[in-house]
Amino acid sequence: MQNLFNIINSITKVDDNNLEKLRMISSVKEIKKNDYFIREGEFPSTFAFVSKGLFRYTYLHEGGKELTKAFFCENSFISAYSALIQHRESYFSIEALEDSEIIVIDYLKFKDLVEKNFCWNKFLLTLLEKGFCIKEKREREFLLYDALQRYESFLQSHPHLENRIKQHMLASYLGITPVALSRIRKVK
Fold first, then answer.
1. Which of 14, 47, 101, 137 could form a Cys-Cys staple with 51, CB 3.0–4.6 A?
2. pLDDT, tens digit, for every residue of 19-39?
3. According to the 3-state scheme, what is the secondary structure of 104-119?
4. Beta bridge partners of residue 105, listed in sequence order
5. Cα-to-chain-centroid distance, residue 15
6. Is 99 a residue whose pLDDT tops 80?
7. Among candidate residues 73, 47, 51, the one with its CA nearest the CA of residue 2
8. Cα–Cα dist 55/187, whole Å
9. CA-to-CA distance for 26 and 105, rounded, in angstroms?
C-alpha cells in the first residue's frame, strides 16, 4: 500500500486520514499469469493499482482473434473505466501477462471519497488527463505513423516492456502481424 500512497502523494498531497479511508476500501489481490482482472461482458465494480506484474487490455474479435489495446505494468492503474462510470459491461478484458499483485479499490466507495474529500479530485483529474493523453497519442500514431514508427514509439515510451511481452501480443498492439514485427526487428 505504501507504494500506492507514494504515487498518490506525488500527484497531490493527501493527508493520512484520507489515505486510511482509501486503505479501508481497498484489498490486496494476487492474479496469476493468464488470469483476468475483468473479462469482456462483465460489469466492473472496482479498479486497481498494479503493485507488481504486467497486464494487457484485449478485445476479442468476432472470429476469436484477440486484439491488444494497451499494456500496463507496475505503478499503473487498471480499470474498465467507461464501463464503471456508465454502469455497463466491459467491452474488453484485462489479462495478467505475469504473476501479479494488485490493490483493488471499490469504485462506488472511492467515488464517495471523491465527493466528500476535495483532495481526491486533483488525483482523479490527473489520472483521467494522463489517460486521455495516452489515448490521443495512440490514435495519432495509428493514423499518421507506419508500422516501424509505431514500433519505435513503443520502444521509446516503454523501453522496459519489450522483453516482457510475447511477440504476437506486441504485434497485435502495433496493428501488424508477428511476421511483420520480426522483419521490423531485423531492420532495427
1. 101
2. 999 999 999 999 999 999 999
3. EEEHHHHHHHHHHCCH
4. 26, 47
5. 26
6. yes
7. 51
8. 28
9. 4
Predicted model pTM: 0.93
Domain spans in the chain, listed from the N-terminal domain onward: 2-131, 145-188
How far is residue 132's CA from residue 123's CA, in Å, rounded to a whole number? 14
pLDDT-based confidence at 63, cuts 50/70/90? confident
- The backbone torsions φ and ψ at residue 95, rounded to the nearest 5 degrees and listed phi first, read -105, 140
**Domain 2-131, what architecture?**
Sandwich (2.60)
Beta sheet of 26-31, edge-to-edge order: 26-31, 100-106, 46-52, 77-78
Q: DSSP string of the chain?
A: -HHHHHHHHHHS---HHHHHHHHHTEEEEEE-TT-EEE-TT----EEEEEEE-EEEEEEE-TTS-EEEEEEEETT-EE--HHHHHHTS--SSEEEESS-EEEEEEEHHHHHHHHHH-THHHHHHHHHHHHHHHHHHHHHHHHHH--HHHHHHHHHHH-TTTGGGS-HHHHHHHHTS-HHHHHHHHHH-
Question: Rounded to whole angstroms, how far apart are CA atoms 60 and 91?
Answer: 9
Cell numbers given for 184: 521490423
List the grid coordinates of 147. Answer: 508500422
